[in-house]
């Protein structure tokens, strides 16, 4: 599965070094300046372990441009986000947006990605990192889906696998994977805070997620212990009725901020969760269904100005 998580922005963290070094409470707040432009590389490696030679791996690499358009009196920012380059490599796809034809003909994503790359999207966010709004994806991608159906009718049946991937809602829910929601009150080094969210999974739905975060030191390292909650539901997958059981998953993340520069340096997040599917030709009941383990690693790094 790809696309768990898509867009991120330039965010500064306000920390008072003297307070942190003295062991006192530290206020963490994202800072935005109108006109700031930054570039990031966001790499997602998705592994699906199924055994019997059926394991799959896909790497999704995005180069991102963020520009702060405005900041209101409450310090909420409006950010323009553009995917300047997108590369996807896996068993069913080998795509690079610099060469729009570089993919296998039976995968619909190249057609969708070609409509998506280098288009502006808008994010509104608070100084704590809470996403107020993400817009521009729905209005762009709905016509793109219709165009794929018209231009490549043979690919239309596979479109349902991706209809929930290219939406405003998915990008809004995915944003805090790499940029954590900060605590409402000042925290001491080692003090923890909790954030609950939803984890959107294409074709499956939302998985509840609980993050327990902590400020680890005066240099701005924030850690995150992640719990993916279990769910059980009936669903339609690839046109077949199936029953899904998602066991509790675990994960961790480390967010690194430069105190002096007030900028994100790196973010690394990893999650693992086991799923069981029963039903249909893919996972027949008489065979006990299919068990798979989904492992996702995300890495965000700063790119040089372009």
SSE arrangement:
Layout: E1 12-13, H1 17-21, E2 30-31, E3 37-49, E4 56-71, E5 77-90, E6 93-96, H2 109-116, E7 120-125, E8 131-135, H3 137-151, H4 168-174, E9 192-201, E10 205-215, E11 221-228, E12 231-237, E13 240-246, E14 249-258, E15 263-278, E16 290-302
Helix pairs in contact: 2-3
Entry summary:
The chain is mainly beta. 11% of the residues lie in helices and 47% in strands.
Main CATH class: Mainly Beta
Overall geometry comes to globular
Question: What is the subunit arrangement here?
Answer: single chain
The pLDDT mean sits at 84
- Share of residues in helices: 10-25%
Secondary structure category: mainly beta
Number of domains as seen in the coordinates: 1
CATH architecture field: Roll
Distance between the termini: 30 Å
Radius of gyration: 20 Å
| Helix-strand sequence | EHEEEEEHEEHHEEEEEEEE
**Do you know the CATH topology?**
Lipovitellin-phosvitin complex, beta-sheet shell regions
Helix count, DSSP H or I runs of 4 or more residues: 4
Main sheet characteristics:
14 strands, antiparallel
Low-confidence runs (pLDDT<50, min 5 residues)?
Answer: 1-18
Counted beta strands:
16
Strand content: over 45%
Explain this structure to me?
- The model is unreliable at 1-18 (pLDDT under 50).
- By secondary structure, this protein is mainly beta.
- The strands form two sheets. Strands 3, 4, 5, 6, 7, 8, 9, 10, 11, 12, 13, 14, 15 and 16 form a 14-stranded antiparallel sheet that branches. Strands 1-2 form a two-stranded antiparallel sheet.
- It contains four helices and 16 strands.
- It has one domain: Lipovitellin-phosvitin complex, beta-sheet shell regions.
């Amino acid at each position: 599965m790809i696309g768990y998580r898509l867009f991120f922005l330039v965010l500064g963290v306000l920390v008072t070094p003297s307070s942190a070094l003295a062991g006192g409470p530290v206020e963490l707040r994202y800072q935005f300046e109108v006109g700031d432009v930054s570039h990031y590389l966001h790499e997602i490696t998705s592994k699906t372990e199924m055994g019997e030679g059926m394991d799959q791996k896909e790497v999704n690499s995005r180069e991102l441009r963020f520009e702060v358009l405005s900041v209101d009196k409450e310090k909420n920012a409006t950010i323009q986000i553009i995917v300047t380059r997108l590369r996807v490599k896996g068993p069913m796809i080998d795509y690079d947006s610099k060469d729009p034809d570089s993919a296998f003909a039976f995968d619909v994503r190249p057609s969708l990605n070609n409509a998506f790359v280098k288009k502006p999207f808008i994010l509104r966010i608070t100084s704590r990192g809470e996403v107020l709004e993400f817009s521009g994806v729905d209005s762009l991608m709905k016509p793109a889906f219709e165009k794929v159906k018209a231009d490549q009718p043979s690919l239309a049946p596979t479109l349902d696998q991706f209809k929930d991937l290219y939406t405003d809602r998915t990008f809004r829910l995915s944003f805090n994977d790499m940029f954590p929601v900060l605590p409402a009150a000042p925290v001491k080094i080692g003090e923890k805070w909790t954030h609950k969210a939803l984890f959107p999974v294409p074709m499956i739905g939302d998985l509840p997620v609980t993050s327990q975060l902590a400020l680890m030191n005066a240099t701005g390292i924030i850690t995150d212990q992640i719990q993916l909650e279990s769910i059980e539901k009936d669903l339609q997958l690839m046109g077949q009725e199936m029953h899904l059981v998602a066991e509790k998953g675990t994960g961790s993340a480390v967010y690194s901020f430069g105190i002096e520069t007030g900028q994100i340096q790196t973010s690394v997040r990893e999650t693992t969760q086991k799923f069981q599917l029963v039903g249909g030709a893919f996972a027949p009941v008489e065979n006990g269904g299919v068990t798979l383990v989904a492992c996702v690693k995300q890495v965000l790094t700063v790119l040089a100005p372009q």
